[in-house]
Amino acid sequence: MKQTLKHLIPSSLWNFARHANDSIRRIHQLPDAYLHPWRRESIRRLAALKDIHKGKRAFIIGNGPSLRQTNLSKLSNEFTFGMNRIYLLFPEIGFHTTYFVSINDLVIEQFKDEILALSMPKFLAWRSHRHFSSQLPITQLPTFLYTSYTSPRFSSDVRGRVWEGATVTNVALQIAFHMGFEKVILIGVDHNFTSKGDANKTVVSEGDDPNHFAPNYFGKGAKWQLPDLDTSEIGYAMAREAYHKAGREVIDATVGGKLTIFPKVDYNSLF
Q1: What is the extent of the structural domain holding 116?
Q2: How confident is the model at residue 19 (pLDDT cuts 50, 70, 90)?
Q3: pLDDT class for 17, splitting at 50, 70, 90?
Q4: Rounded distance between C-alpha atoms, residue 182 and residue 115, angstroms
Q5: Does 20 map to a domain?
Q6: Distances, alpha carbon 159 to alpha carbons 34, 48, 123, 214, 261, in Å
Q7: Residue 154 in contact with residue 238, Cβ under 8 Å?
Q8: How far apart are CA 221 and CA 244, in angstroms?
Q9: Based on the structure, what is the number of domains in the chain?
Q10: Looking at the domain assignment, is residue 84 inside a domain?
Q11: Do residues 61 and 83 lie in contact, with contact meaning Cβ atoms separated by under 8 Å?
Q12: For residue 72, what are the CA distances in angstroms to 90, 94, 102, 106?
């Protein structure tokens, strides 16, 4: 029925109706997403980070198995973004990422204590604030981003609403743009999963994790959501165009990665 209506209704009217519906669905998130004290503090922090790394380069580190074929020691003196359970690698590689990003509610709910213990600046989805104690000093709280599932867009300023694009990597690309990075290099973004099924479906791991760099990443009993690769590619394409329009670039140095949105480069050639 939805597809039939989409063909019958003029595209301009269809898009207006879709955006109006998305806006209505987000009403319940307001005004807390902008006026809650935790978000006001987050907006203050994000303002201080605007263009702080102008002209620099950064690496966004995905969590794919290809990290096992990537010499991460080369990144010890680079600006880096780690995501979700990347911290499992920190003891092995001997350093931690410059920044940390996580937006998936299942990840944050299950591993919030581990995430909170991380020492670097942390960026989490605003809806996850309910998992943290109201007694926490504001200085110990992560920086909360007002992210949404609806209305695709690329945000050059992440103080406002940020579209998730079905993957934390898309959010990290928007944060990196906000910070002013001129060149962003993706690694470990394999864009390929052994586990198959409906996009965004919540599943429970039955054993070792074959989709990430460590078998205990989502080990037995962990809940996670199957990937939505099509939607993530929409977000990646938006990021590519936004960076290009600003005279910046995103390149992909993932070893054997399946993503085709960004120009490919050899990882070792970057050093």
Answers
A1: 31-270
A2: very low
A3: very low
A4: 28
A5: no
A6: 9, 10, 12, 33, 26
A7: yes
A8: 42
A9: 1
A10: yes
A11: yes
A12: 10, 10, 20, 27
Backbone angles phi, psi at 29, to 5 degrees: -80, -15
Rg, Å, the chain Cα set = 19
Burial of 180 (0-12, 13-18, 19+ CB in 10 A): middle
**How far apart, in whole angstroms, are the C-alpha atoms of residue 51 and residue 180?**
4
Residue recorded with tokens 């165009």? 241
**DSSP states along 174-213:** HHHHHTT-SEEEEES-----S--SSTT-EEE--S--SSSS
3-state secondary structure 40-81: HHHHHHHHHHCCCCCCCEEEEECCCHHHHHCCHHHHCCCEEE
Residue 76 belongs to some domain of the structure: yes
On whether residue 15 sits in a domain, the answer given is no
Q: Report residue 15 as tokens.
A: 């898009």
How far are the Cα atoms of 46, 88, 190 from residue 94, in angstroms, in the given order?
28, 11, 23
Chain centroid offset of residue 184 CA: 14
Count Cβ atoms below 10 Å from residue 55 Cβ, excluding itself. Answer: 10
- Who has greater pLDDT, 21 or 149? 149
